[in-house]
Design brief:
The structure is a homodimer.
Chain A lengths: L6 H19 L4 H8 L3 H13 L3 E4 L15 E4 L5 E8 L2 E8 L4 E8 L7 H17 L8 E8 L2 E2 L6 E3 L10 H9 L3 E5 H12 L8 E6 L3 E7 L2 E2 L31 H4 L1 H8 L14 H13 L3 H24 L4 E4 L6 H13 L12 E4 L2 H21 L18
Parallel strand pairs in A: 3-6, 6-9, 10-13, 13-14
Antiparallel strand pairs in A: 1-2, 3-4, 4-5, 7-8, 10-11, 11-12
Helix pairs in contact in A: 1-3, 2-3, 6-12, 8-10, 9-10, 10-11
Chain B binds a DNA duplex through helix 1 and helix 3.
DNA sequence: CAGTGTTTTTTCGAGGCTCGAAAAAATAGG
DNA sequence: CCTATTTTTTCGAGCCTCGAAAAAACACTG
């Protein structure tokens, strides 16, 4: 079970805490850090002096310009942008997007590229990823040695260890250990994350007021995905990235899903399902490979304009999502929901049936109080989530190490 | 967010760790404790010497009599039974059961009582609970002052703070803050737990090999309940005890459930549902109040004997449970399952349809590898779980105290 | 039965860490 | 220029854990 706390863990953890406080607060003063961490001023002073000496933090103006106060002005502590850099790689349908981000979170280099992910061979897919990363690393603006971490995100299922993609709708290939591949190729630690989990991470940084301890991000796109934060922690399955909300069963034996099974929520609410129903095709019809965002927007426009199969298709989607959420809420209790992706722009068409369905379920006891947010564009969210994930890794594992590196050679004395 | 680690927390946590190690291992030697906690021998020596001095631990023979080894024999450390005592109160349909348990986990006094929970008034129900607790505390064998904790368990929904029962099938009353009531009455800290969660806790102590980090306990009784352990932690909802597996939706608009809604898993797999289907009554038939265990066993016997509505009823139950588990597994990935309660004794009738259904779902990809255990008797499990819950509370909160009660009246000012 | 080997447990000094109090620093206001 | 105020640093005290060595407790051996 869990292990005792060694004496040296103490400093490590408190260092991590200080870095985290700075990352969250922007440019807090030492006093503010002391307040949020609960540690004493002396401790914060010692730790931050270390961190500045190591080039991790840098002093600057305090965050609030309201420095028109009486006493000694606060000195803001900020992350030193040059302390490190991280790289994000987002692989989505027919699209590959890479960015290099400095330690303070600013994008310093990026590249995007169209691919035909559905038909590419395994080697080609891996090759493209490796190549685009290599090009960014060779960018003269980038100091390769400063890149401390790569975070990949992909639509689909990844493993809990964040090493491999297990399955993805964007490619017929399975079980690609992207993290291991990139690590071997570039010698930079890498992780392979699930796209919806990264959306959830990003929402938490974007709006910590609303998305704090418990919330749900649902991707309404070609497939239906979910990122779930419970009790302040990203929820993952025990073996995989988990949270396959889209493949909860809505109707046993029902509509044909892209995954080959029947009755999944996605088989009613995914783009292909809405499109299939809007065209009044049978529920047994093989899901089409891709419906463009433009087509979906046109469908939504028609549905808004007049009653008909289009509107009914959105109603069915809402119903499936509502019952699915109801079942989910039976397990975890209701929580704020963010709808992300192209169909989030059609949430007005989905919401009535969704709320009606949810009211029929155990989780819907206070269905009117459940609040939904819509964000049509998932890509920026996924990128942000990846960046934060990689940066917090650097914060914790690289700048607050001490697992077993007893290697301390020269005892460092106080920095003058 | 999380708070820095103070210097005094260190000792507190390591004390708790040592106590936990002793509770898990039985009579470990100091050397064994050092090994499992990862702390040094000197530290373990210091802490255990403190704990013995405080009467929390006691020396004794080592756990393994295989002490025929060469050197200085190990000295076993055990929990001192007289260090404290706890009380468990389990309230189930028409039955109230109380036990007093010493610090080492032995029952030292108990009492059970039949009640008519379904028709009792709120006051009568509370009164019975208070009275039975009082009688146990007045037992001359018990030192009242040693009773450090009361843990109640009830079938139904409790709140996350473990203070109150929110809703229960065993009584029409709602929102009874049992924990507060008992605390006020006896001045002993109390918690109100969900029965299925306690089953899960107990399974973990009974068989840590099988039920370690991720597993599911499902109560198949009049209602369907669930206790879920994920990543080594008891899973609860964000507001309530959560994990209302029985009220996930199996068929939208389907059979009438005891909760008043339609299509819940329970409306197919609860005792009343199996009974209703076996009698070939309509799915709209109002659920009967109670089906006796004897009636259920008779039903199962008939189903085993010949094809007919009884067998079909169990098949439907299996199907509902299978699809429900499939949806659950879509979220959390498959995990070992313990089926508990009277219908667990009929699991042979349920399993085929359950496995068939689960194979139709996303979580069922490796359905044959999912393993089920059956335990027909839930009450002992619930009692054990309560006892362990109360005892670990004493371990942590009373014998390793020192929460950072920063009681600081000098809060934050600085609002220019 | 004393001596030797082995394993467990305790002791002791060293080194770190956090804390509170006090000092130092930096500014606005008068 | 002096004073009040707030932030930050300094310093000694008090704990805590650790490693090494000593002490303890037994089995085995001749």
């Amino acid at each position: 079970m869990s292990v005792g706390i060694r004496h040296d863990d103490l400093r490590r953890r408190n260092r991590a805490m200080v870095i985290a406080a700075v990352r969250r607060a922007g440019r807090p003063s030492r006093t503010e850090i002391a307040a949020t961490t609960g540690l004493s001023h002396s401790t914060i002073s010692a730790i931050s002096s270390d961190l500045i000496g190591e080039g991790i933090l840098a002093e600057g103006k305090p965050s609030e310009a309201g420095a028109l106060k009486r006493g000694r002005p606060q000195v803001g502590l900020g992350l030193n942008p040059e302390a490190a850099a991280v790289m994000t790689v987002v692989l989505s349908l027919n699209f590959l997007s890479v960015a290099v981000i400095d330690y303070a979170g600013q994008v310093i280099s990026e590249e995007q590229r169209r691919l035909d992910t559905l038909t590419m061979s395994r080697e080609a897919l891996i090759g493209e990823c490796v190549a685009i990363v290599r090009r960014r690393l060779e960018d003269p603006d980038i100091d390769v040695r400063s890149v401390a971490r790569i975070a990949l995100a992909i639509q689909g299922i990844t493993d809990t260890k964040a090493r491999a993609m297990l399955w993805s709708p964007i490619t017929p290939q399975t079980d690609i250990a992207f993290a291991d591949i990139l690590e071997a190729e570039f010698g930079i630690p890498a992780t392979m994350e699930n796209d919806c989990n990264m959306m959830a991470v990003a929402l938490r940084w974007r709006d910590p007021e609303r998305y704090r301890d418990d919330f749900i991000a649902i991707l309404l796109s070609h497939g239906i995905g979910m990122g779930l934060v419970l009790k302040g922690e990203l929820f993952t399955g025990t073996h995989s990235s988990g949270g396959e909300f889209g493949h909860m069963i809505h109707r046993p034996g029902g509509a044909l899903c892209r995954c080959g099974r029947r009755g999944c929520v996605e088989a009613y609410a995914g783009n292909y399902a809405i499109w299939r129903n809007a065209r009044q095709l049978s529920e047994d019809t093989e899901p089409v490979a891709d419906v463009s965002d433009a087509q979906m927007r046109a469908l939504a426009a028609t549905a808004r304009e007049r009653a008909g199969p289009e509107r009914e298709a959105y109603r069915k989607a809402g119903e499936a999502l509502g019952y699915g959420l109801g079942s989910l809420f039976a397990l975890i209790d209701p929580a704020p929901v963010a709808m992300v992706g192209v169909s989030a722009a059609a949430f007005d068409l989905i919401e009535p049936a969704l709320r009606e369905a949810i009211a029929q379920t155990a989780g819907g006891q206070h269905s009117e109080s459940i609040s939904f947010d819509a964000e049509p564009n998932e890509l920026p969210l996924i990128r942000e989530g990846c960046a934060m994930r990689a940066l917090t890794f650097v914060d914790q594992e690289i700048f607050a190490p001490g697992m077993q590196t007893k290697a301390g050679p020269a005892a460092k004395k106080n920095v003058a």
